[in-house]
Amino acid sequence: MTNPQFTYYPGQVFFHGSTGRAMGTKFDALVRGLSESVSSRIWDEICALVRGDEAVFDRFSAESEVFAVNKALKAGTPVRLSEELEQALVQSWRYTELTGGLFDITRRDFSALKLENHCLSCSDTGTELDFGGFAKGWTLGRIVGLLRREGVVSAFLDFGMSSIYAMGQH
Q1: Burial class of residue 5 (count of CB atoms within 10 Å of its CB; 0-12, 13-18, 19+)
Q2: CA 142, CA 168: separation in Å to the nearest integer?
Q3: CA 130, 131, 133: angle at the middle one, nearest 5?
Q4: How far apart, in Å, do the first and last CA atoms of the chain sit?
Q5: 3-state SS of the chain?
Q6: Single pTM value for the model
Q7: Residue 21 and residue 144 in contact, taking contact as beta carbons nearer than 8 Å
Q8: Mean pLDDT over residues 25-51, rounded?
Q9: Residues 103-138: pLDDT tens digits?
Q10: What residues contact 142, with CB distance under 8 A and at least 6 apart?
């Protein structure tokens, strides 16, 4: 994530946060009804969440979990998954089943993957994970959960104009 920005508008009890480059695009949050100090704290938590999910899902970064998992799968080595990546994989599997295979986070064949005791293995060393069509929505859902836990009732969230969430009134 590059250069996150935060602006608070006290007369409107409103903040706008923008991440700059995050998950291959940009994330913007417009949130109403919070004090400046609470808004600032929540924005910091949102940025930490986005950075954390980038560290899990970015298949191009040698520092990310998905990069490490793909490397292990190519080598034919089972790999232990973090709780978050395992949950995302299970949810992706569900979407693959619900869409008759149209949704697929592998770059080859989802059916080649096997998840057992929190470890992922693959029968096809050409298969790799690509959460590009999933990660922004996953992260957006986690941000919505954070806002709800904080009592936010009005917000507009935009993750690259492809994953958008609105709640309450503006």
Answers
A1: exposed
A2: 18
A3: 110
A4: 27
A5: CCCCEEEEEHHHCEEEEEEEEECCEEEEEEEECCCHHHHHHHHHHHHHHHHHHHHHHCCCCCCCHHHHHHHHHHHCCCEECCHHHHHHHHHHHHHHHHCCCCCCCECCCHHHEEEECCEEEECCCCCCECCCCCHHHHHHHHHHHHHHHCCCCEEEEEECCCEEEEECCC
A6: 0.89
A7: no
A8: 96
A9: 999 978 888 999 999 999 999 988 999 998 799 999
A10: 49, 53
The number of residues making up the chain comes to 170
Q: Note the Cα 81 to chain centre separation in Å.
A: 16
Percent of the chain at pLDDT exceeding 90: 83
Among candidate residues 66, 15, 7, the one with its CA nearest the CA of residue 170: 15
- Average per-residue pLDDT for the chain: 93
